[in-house]
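Folding Query — how this chain folds
Tokens — whole-number codes for backbone shape
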Amino acid sequence: MFEKLSQNAIRVVMLAQEEARRLGSKRVGTEHILLGLLRDTQGIARQALIDQGIELEPLRELVAAKAKPQLGSGDVHYSSHTKMTIELAEAEAVRLGDAQVEAEHLLIAMLSLGEGLAVRLLEGFGVILTRLRWQAIRLRRASPGGARITPAIDQYGRDLTMQAAQPATFLPWGRRPVVEQTIELLGTQRRSVPLLYGPPGVALSGIVAGVIEYLLSGLIFDHMAHFRVVGLDMATMKADAESLTDFRQAFRALLGEAARSKDIILVIEAVHTLLLAEPDTKEGIAAELLLPMLQSGEMACITTADQAAAEQLMRTDPYRKFFTGIPVPETSYAETLQLLDEVRPVYQTHHQLLIPDDTLEASVRSARLALPDDAMPMAAIRLLDRSAARRRFLGLTNRYRARDLERQLRKLKQERDKLGPDPQAERLSDLRQAAKAIEAEIASLSGDLLAFGEQLTLSPADIVTYAELMRQGDRLATD
């Protein structure tokens, strides 16, 4: 079982045996392997664990609390999960092109297996297993020459891999073929550049998020298992550059780092705004520098464009020679509903509203009415967000409106009382009618009043009402 383990990996296993014996256990479980990895002071796996906030002593205390001491003497044995971890570590080493099983392969295998006490303990510490696995692979791949220095990318790029929502958000089944086609193009020898396009609202960024999900889960080409996905922050670069010369230097530096690093997938959104720009502009300079990089396939790149611009690029030389257009479809009713359910906690927290299931359904049904020019899923998401903002705002304004009405009502009652025992009948009648009108308006607002800290509910009727208001506003704007 240990034939292909390096001396360092064997040392980790021996340390795991020590931990098991110290806790009075004859069984070496994955939790003891994890402790052994943390005791390996020079190991990559230890660094990956520490980067995730896992320290030796707190973990050791937790393992001790769960340990069941076993009486008697004799050699320790390995649990089934530990045996599977060691066997899988051999496969992980082969996949990563390593001749021997190193200590970090044990960690990668443990996380890939996803079973055993060690995994449950890591999850209890809030560790995202896929991200830790990816980080261990990155450290392994970077270890011979150390981490690459990429100052321009660090300044003008957004590390989308580290920002990715964890656990991963729902990826609609209808979009998986698009994600997989994008990954396949990234893996071609004569690298073709994926160009994602679709109508406004299809959420092209969701495909990039899907690529990241596949990457973190290990569902990607072996040579790309350690890649990170970086989004180009064009706005910041343009703002920082005081002259065209400054911009040229910054953009050239970023592209050079992306090409030399060999472990970056650069995401360029709205690439048509660069490639179709006028020459003597910052966008035009970016196009001048970017074009030869795209033609040569020196760097892995994902691009996006709106539908009309993408079709123009794919008809025009030289762009059609290296771009492969990938149309991104709208999400279905069921997929959009699932996506809304995924983002519901975000909007409930932001708007301080309760959003029931039937409200999500109303958002999907009414989205076409409210935003006919937007595709799914963004049409439904925008309608939900705007309706929630309106509901919250009405709750606040109605509270102040009710207070104002109550002040008016008190004044009317005071005036009525001043009329004395023999009031003018006509004036008294006017005061009573005015008071009744105010009381009725207060009653109509009572269901929408929002006390401080109170949560209102966003109802399906709120969605339908706001969708109609948006439709009427759009119709007036086009008349």
Summary: The CA atoms of residues 130 and 217 lie 6 Å apart.
